[in-house]
Amino acid sequence: MSIDIRRFDLATEGAEWNRYVERFDSTNPLFRAEALTRQSRETGTKIVALAGFKGQEAVGIFPIFVLEKGPFSAAFSPAPRSWSCYLGPAMSGLSSLKQRKADRRVQRFLDGSLEWLDEKYGPIYCKFTTAGCDDVRPFVWNEYDVTPGYTYIVDLDATPDELIDRFSGDARRNVRSTPEHVAIAEGGTDDVEAIVRQVAARYESQGRPFQLSPEYVRSLYEALPDGALRPYVCTIDGEFHGGILVLESDTTLLRWQGGVKIDRDVDVAVNDLLDWHVMCEGIERGAERYDLVGAGVPSINRYKAKFNPRLATHYTVTSGAFGLDRLVDRYQKFV
Fold it and tell me: Do 9 and 144 share a domain, yes or no?
């Protein structure tokens, strides 16, 4: 049986879309309808929420953001300038299938989605960053370029005492010697904005662009279900010194934003304590893994590796080329 590709209207069918997000493998809260619509609005793109059906059964979802300029269009997942981590296609039920059937299902869903996109918009450039679909061969067969990316995963398959024993010596010392005047806790709306502003200041000090607005992240926090986006903050003598925004699904915590190097001279390992607190709460809630979101920058890798994570792969899929037309050049700053 073939797979039918259907576009969802998230304004009227958002609840049904969210049921698939909650059920499908390797999704995260940024797949949800309320998050997609805000990403679309924030980035000036059109959200195209595709789902694949085998009969009445939904087998795949693929949120795509289309940027249109005159007669030209480009397609992204996640949206350009949204600073989202992973989107792209996600599928359900593959683990229960024999390999031949799983291969066929993935290929038919991705082929159908790309064909739908090409017929409707004919994008001259595409860029998808995915961690929800391990089989990216259909992209290669459709003449897309596929580049591996890397992240670190801490498996939360232990008690806190067992987990900390896996850490490096300095991480263990930092966590076990937390001063009494230091507190780590889950914050609220104002803390969301404080964390984003701290990240923006860090980027600015390095002369690097950072377009994520505190207002946009606040709107995500207020729109998503409770617990989907958690702001963890570190206070020293009651004063904010750092924080991490964590996206949470049933099985996975994503270290989305924050955890930057502190610009004040304090004798406290702020980020070690933040990450440790996130892991402990994840274990308590039954999470299976903590994705540190990124393992491609050597200087940052040295910090993340102290938690003894495993290396995992995701993929960036692209098609088309910049530099052929001045109009297309305008897209480059978005990606």
Answer: yes
